[in-house]
Amino acid sequence: MNYRASLYELLGGDEGIRRLVEAFYPKVQKDPLIGPLFPDNIEPVMEKQYMFLSQFFGGPSLFSDQHGHPMMRARHMPFPITHEKADAWLACMNEALIEVGVEHELRLFVIERLSGPAHHFVNTD
Ligand code: HEM
């Protein structure tokens, strides 16, 4: 693995992040634990996630440019998030990474990188 490249580059840049987000949300919607938290019209959520993950993985600051400071924990406060839900979110992301063909080592690294934030967003038992 090229450790100097950003995760954004390693995941295939703009096109790669789009494909990842498009693979991720159908899994989220089907998940019995977290699916019900999301609106039927998932398009706006996908767009925000594409902008956020681009930035989070070291690409262009698309999310902040349009929506200001991410404050992601605060943005998740309206939704009851347990550790089980954080794990369900990460499992969907893991499946999405497999689906878009991200290789094993990079996939584990990406999941590790997202585990901190996911469990940090837990706001209820
Ligand atoms: C821990 C489990 C998580 C759950 C259950 C969860 C759930 C949700 C829900 C219900 C929304 C709102 C959808 C709507 O607009 O109605 C949302 C928005 C969002 N989530 Fe998560 N999320 C989780 C973790 C994460 C993680 C780890 C990230 C990124 C690292 C993330 C990034 C986002 C972004 C960027 C938005 C859009 C925020 C906005 O409206 O500005 N989420 N999430």
From TrEMBL:
<keyword id="KW-0813">Transport</keyword>
<dbReference type="Pfam" id="PF01152">
    <property type="entry name" value="Bac_globin"/>
</dbReference>
<keyword id="KW-0479">Metal-binding</keyword>
<dbReference type="InterPro" id="IPR009050">
    <property type="entry name" value="Globin-like_sf"/>
</dbReference>
<keyword id="KW-0408">Iron</keyword>
<dbReference type="InterPro" id="IPR044203">
    <property type="entry name" value="GlbO/GLB3-like"/>
</dbReference>
<protein>
    <submittedName>
        <fullName>Hemoglobin</fullName>
    </submittedName>
</protein>
<dbReference type="InterPro" id="IPR012292">
    <property type="entry name" value="Globin/Proto"/>
</dbReference>
<keyword id="KW-0349">Heme</keyword>
<comment type="similarity">
    <text>Belongs to the truncated hemoglobin family. Group II subfamily.</text>
</comment>
<dbReference type="InterPro" id="IPR001486">
    <property type="entry name" value="Hemoglobin_trunc"/>
</dbReference>
